[in-house]
Amino acid sequence: MRKNKMMRLASALLVAVLLTTCAISGTFAKYTTSVTSQDAARVAYWGFQPVAMDITDLFDKAYDTTVNATVDVIAPGTTSSDTFAFAYNEANGTAPEVAYTFEITVDAVCDDLIKNNKNIQWKLDSGAWGTFEELVNAIKALAGEADGSADYEPNQLPAAFTAADDVHTISWQWLFTGAETYDHDSDPLTPDLTQDQYDTLMANAAVLDDVSIQITITATQID
Questions:
Q1: What's this model's pTM, rounded to 2 decimal places?
Q2: Res. 21: pLDDT tops 80
Q3: Separation CA 212–CA 214 (nearest Å)
C-alpha cells in the first residue's frame, strides 16, 4: 500500500515537472521576428516673400523749382529714378527647394511722341541710356530669359534676384538741348524739326502724350 502511494506521488511529481518544462519552453524557446521603420518630413522651403514693390516715385508733379503741375509729368530738363526688388529670404541659407517658373511682366504705355523723342532717354541700373523699348526689354530680361519668363530647378535663384537686397533702378532723363534736326518723314505731324521744335510740338498737342510703366514679378511652383 505504501509502495502504491509512493508511485502515485512520483507520477504526480513527474506530471508537474513536465507541465513546468512546457511552460518554461513556451516562454524562452520560440521563433520571433521584429521590424521597425520610421519616416519624417518638413515642408519644402520657398523663400520668396510677399513684400510690396513700389515704383510710384518714378514720375513726379514737381522737379526742383522748374516744374510744378497738378499731376505727374515729364518735361525738358527733368530727370528721376526709382527702385524695385523681389524679396527673397535666405534665413535658412538655401534657395527654393522646389522647381518654379520666374516671370517678369511689364505693362507699359509710351505714346509715340514720347517714344520717338531722342532727348527722352531711359536706362536700367548702370546700363547705357537708350529707348523706352530697350528699358522694357532690359527689365524683362532680369527673369533670366529675354521674353521675361524662365524655369528654375530646385536650389536655383535668378541671377538678378539672389538676395533680398538685390535692388534694381529705373532711370529716365529729358535732355535740355535742341540743336539736332530729326527726320520724322514717317509721321506727317512731325516733318524735319529741330529738337526744340519737336519738344514744343509735344507740349502744345491737343492731347498730351502719356507714359506709364507697371512691373509684375511672379514666382510659381512647377507641378
A1: 0.80
A2: no
A3: 7
